[in-house]
Amino acid sequence: MRQHSGIGVLDKAVSVLHAVADQPCNLTDLCARTGLPRATAHRLAVGLEVHRLIARDPDGLWRPGPSLAELAAKADDPLLDAAAAVLPRLREITGESVQLYRVEGSFRVCVASVEPPTGLRDTVLVGARLPLTAGSGAKVLLAWADPALVRAVLPAAAFGERVLAEVRKRGWAQSAAEREAGVASVAAPVRDAADTVIAAISVSGPIDRMGRRPGSRWAADLLAAADAISKRL
């Protein structure tokens, strides 16, 4: 769930940013997603356009603007710093695609990704927003998520609370052809110094190579990689 600062105009502006990040939208869509009055939503969107935090596409729909990427490029992210040496090593061990996901709203966002140099791969680009309703990464993030988010997502998910309980018990999750046909994956939680789950590290690839139970093959290596990132934080 999104946090509120108590500063009304700031919280409303951030809600506009999240709304256009979920999917490009017009003013009517923006009002529906944010719950803001039409005049307020329009005023905030135009102001964010001035600062290039949102922009209009050729169809006139608002979408994230270039200033967001410029600011993100300058940000110091301890999670990415900690994962920088671990993810390539995990790719070498598995020979498969490796990703790192965070929760943003009701989505999981890929914040880091490394690919094998050759062969079939499951390419997930950095910045890709995937639903929390399918895939091993989604299961891991939901297993330790805020209960309100879990209640909101589970009705549409390909799995239920029993699966999340199993993930919490064994410490990792797997999936086969759940998010995308022909793709299997296994994921584990990354924890900060307070033992809070802040991300999910995932290995994914073709079912033909990964198998329908990829956890039996790669869970131990994935847990070791997750622990290595956590220790670096």
From TrEMBL:
Which parts form a coiled-coil structure per UniProt?
none
The domain of life is Bacteria
Q: List keywords of the entry alphabetically.
A: DNA-binding, Transcription, Transcription regulation
User: Which residue range or ranges hold the HTH iclR-type domain?
Assistant: 7-66
All copies of domain IclR-ED, residue ranges: 67-233
Q: Which Pfam families match?
A: HTH_IclR, IclR_C
Transmembrane stretches in the record are none
Q: Which GO terms describe its molecular function?
A: DNA binding; DNA-binding transcription factor activity
Xref: PANTHER family: HELIX-TURN-HELIX TRANSCRIPTIONAL REGULATOR, ICLR FAMILY (PTHR30136), TRANSCRIPTIONAL REGULATORY PROTEIN (PTHR30136:SF39)
Question: In its UniProt entry, what is this protein called?
Answer: IclR family transcriptional regulator
* Organism classification: Bacteria, Bacillati, Actinomycetota, Actinomycetes, Mycobacteriales
